[in-house]
Amino acid sequence: MSPEEIKEKVTSIKQESVELLRDELSPYVASISSRAQYENIARHSGTGSFFQWKYRKFLLSNAHVLGCKDLTLGVALRSGSEMHTLSGPVPQSRDSDLAFMEIPEDDWQRGDRLPVAGSSFYDHQVPDEEFCFFMGFPKHMSFSSIAERAVRTRVLPYAGQKLPGITDEWVFYIDVDFNKMRDADGQPVEPFDFEGVSGSLVWDTGIVASVKADAQWKPQMVKPAGVVRAWQEKFGRLEVVHAKYVADLLRRGAKMLDANPEDKNL
Questions:
Q1: Which CATH number is 3-27+120-243 given?
Q2: pTM of the entire structure?
Q3: Fold for domain 28-117+246-259?
Q4: Do residues 28 and 116 lie in contact, with contact meaning Cβ atoms separated by under 8 Å?
């Protein structure tokens, strides 16, 4: 297969994959809200992803989203429901800017979300120029509802290529091309600030690899690759923490919660 044929086939699959992956992976993510003390209105803070580690359920996001001591945090465990108040210790890593909170099993059972197995995370390196998929909740697409005591948000699915040559020990980068971006209804979107997608789970789609191997691509082929840490508007790219640091934080954090629940920094 020539390079031109590979590019054409990759583009075709990528366009179809966004809708398929949105439906397949949406139960694993949710928006996170925050409310200041003595305020009735909540505001959108970021995006979180659900994980299971040895039968325990957790919400994972960035430390700068979950680690604010002066705010009450909430997450919707069921679509369209009142925000579930998060409480308890927040194990976090300052180096990776990752943090998580445990969700009690009784609360989890009342929801309709799904957790990613913690064992899915390992030292997986996304090949350069492979498409990475994520769904986040941009702040500009949210509004607060006092009557419903909730923050209404709209998810934005996006697939962008891993940028070559700038990966380091901690992070890699996804290219953001607004000319190719579509919203959940398939409509073009205007350039905007990506604030609010921090904490989104990033998936290696394997689209480019499957085309080069002349294999059929399926949504079930995706692998967790990391978590969005920052939007670098100046460079038109998203910074993603490698998946291995997610596994490391979950492993050490779960042990820490059992041994010393007051010690939150890892």
A1: 2.40.10.10
A2: 0.84
A3: Thrombin, subunit H (2.40.10)
A4: yes
